[in-house]
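Hi V.,

You were right to ask for the full record rather than a summary. Here it is.
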Amino acid sequence: MRVGAMMLALLWMGMVLSPGPLLAQVAEDRAFTARFDGSEQRYVITLPSGFDPARPTAMLMALHGHGSDRWQFVKDERDECRAARDAAAKHGMIYVSPDYRARTSWMGPAAEADTLQIIETLRTRFPVTKVILCGGSMGGTAALTFAALHPDQIDGVVSMNGTANLVEYDQFQDAIAASFGGTKQEKPDEYRQRSAELNADKLTMPISTTTGGRDTLVPPDSVLRLADMLTKQNRPFKKIHRPEGGHSTTYADAMSAFEYVFAAVLADQPADAPQPLLSFGEKPVKIVCLGDSVTGVYYHTGGRRAYPEMLEVAIRKAMPKANVQVINAGISGHTTTEGLARLERDVLMHQPDLVTISFGLNDLSRLSEEQYRANLESVVTRARAANVKVVLCTPNTVLTTTARPLEKLTRYCDLLRTLAKTLEVPVCDQFAAGEGLRAKDAWAFRRTLSDEIHPNMDGHKLMAEELCRTITGRNVSLSDVGPLSPVLVRTRALVESSKPITVLAMPPFDTLIAPALKELAPQAVVSVKTWPTDGKNLAELEQAARETVRGLRPDLVIVSVPPGVTAASEEEFFRSYSWIMNWSLSFGHQEWDCLVVHPGVSQPDATTPQSDLIRQLVHAQDLTLIDRAAGDTSSAESILVKALKQAW
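Predicted structure:
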């Protein structure tokens, strides 16, 4: 190999590193104990600028080349590395670069276990919704290998200058044998299962690859065969091949590869997107969502909106010129029988262009499969007779209970899909989408539920995204949509009408809220009732919320669970904290204001194991969290006043 080519290869493989700039935020070097063998391993994580740990986000994991380590894709100025950093920053993604057994990994069993452990850890720590793998050379190979081994964990792959067939690859054999536990002759199955080309059926996610025709270090042949194979199967695949190129990828080609995968995975319209069911433009379009408590506005989503309201937001994102109105016709406890009975009053009288029908969670406990099917068919027939288009929605999936076993719900969903096919009606498969998330990340799925059957606002956003995709043919993300503003609607209205305000508040905000409100509105007349927390565990606070708040009917509730209050498990904490917020709201549309205060506001130095989980839970409930910013040493009083001004 010529000296110039050798230097190029060494640079790519990490044996020469230039210092280079970091992303917008500081890269944090993290150590962890590997489950695989108990050794200490490391990865670097960089959070995007303005990162909100409560908001769902995507993650780009960059895998380094042979001879390098976790710092290559963080510091190296090589085009591929700069493109990865810039692409992650542009899309506001968490950026992670693991050692994955460092310099001679090749995604052997230990590296595979470490990568899986890191993904699981970060999905627990942050609300990660999408994981995209990228890498170059050995890292490009490893990205394809891991995606084929764990397709349920990976949403997209960018592989630069890698190989897809380790059975035929003949470079770095000593290193690969050490990583795989033996040679090709000694461990043939290991080499086969880690060859993406030989496991192409597992690669259903969007993939882009870059290759060079004159690359002698990692020849492109296997990747080109993989590209042809997946393209013929209509898999989402972008091939960037430069016949005169070597073992490197230009910045422009790398960015093109990233943007293709990001467009398919994150929020943009795929190239093969179906046509919209309606024409969205200047002409007004009206949609009615008919359903039960999951459709209606109730406390599970904060009491101000649910997926129909979020659907309108999603459609406006997908179709910026859309003149659309979405009407919520969901009522708690209803089955298809009640839905059919009120079809004229709640749907057809609005003369909509389209109606979405979402029932099932009550039907399966009260109606037979035959009744469910007959009612759905009648609703579709009557809507079509009124020249209204129809979308049938499977119910959201649930945590199985005696009243609603998952097996029975699955049968009702199958029945709906069969009926839709017979009637030639589009289906929005909310059940399948939820099950897909559960299979990929059970804890991420759990975080979308307010209780065993009702999604919280995070769950409703996902439902609205799914329904928007069915109606418009386009993907959108609602993860950046925060709580409605203004927040203190009732409190402000009472002040402006010179009426007294009743506040129920946990300490220490029972003593702070009246002065804070008076600083904001000196004329305010405030009566405060203390919600005791001293000596109570989380379950007792949940019970107090159930017994106190709705009976008192206050004007403002301030939830501030002390930092010392924990639970036996994360699931118990999740459940009780969710129900404290649930019981702090009225049953239906929000009748009083509710604020949640993070424990760090009153005790900044206190240790709160579930600190990030609290942020996620409040965001998922569509409520406003009063929090202490990093480095803020202000008093709890001043933070409260500032938050009230912003919420006013």
